[in-house]
Amino acid sequence: MKIVRRLGATPRERGSATGQSCPDIFELSDGSFAVIGREATKELDPELPPDAARADYERIVIITRETLLRAKQDIPDA
């Protein structure tokens, strides 16, 4: 599996001075997506609705609203 492309603007384009520690979204070679975000599993796990579940190997991460909105144009419809 490899990163094919970034979705949306680079961290620097979104205002990160260093461009090294900001949320990011990537499309992978298998069609999946990878997200870099702030770890929030412990904080948000108890808040999950009853019909949501998280496996032990999964983590909840937070990305900024701007990150997702700027990636929207790059997210395929199908």
Which helices and strands, and how do they pair?
Layout: E1 3-6, E2 24-28, E3 33-36, E4 38-39, H1 41-44, E5 61-62, H2 65-71
Antiparallel strand pairs: 1-2, 2-3, 4-5
Count the DSSP helices.
Answer: 2
Q: Give, in spatial order, the strands making up the sheet with the most strands.
A: 1-2-3
Radius of gyration: 14 Å
Please tell me what the overall shape is: globular
Q: Pairing-aware structural class of the strands and helices?
A: alpha+beta
Q: What kind of sheet is the major sheet?
A: 3 strands, antiparallel
Q: Spans of 5+ residues with little confidence (pLDDT < 50)?
A: none
Give the number of DSSP strands.
Answer: 5
Proportion of helical residues: 10-25%
Strand proportion? 15-25%
Order of helices and strands: EEEEHEH
Cα-to-Cα separation, first versus last residue: 20 Å
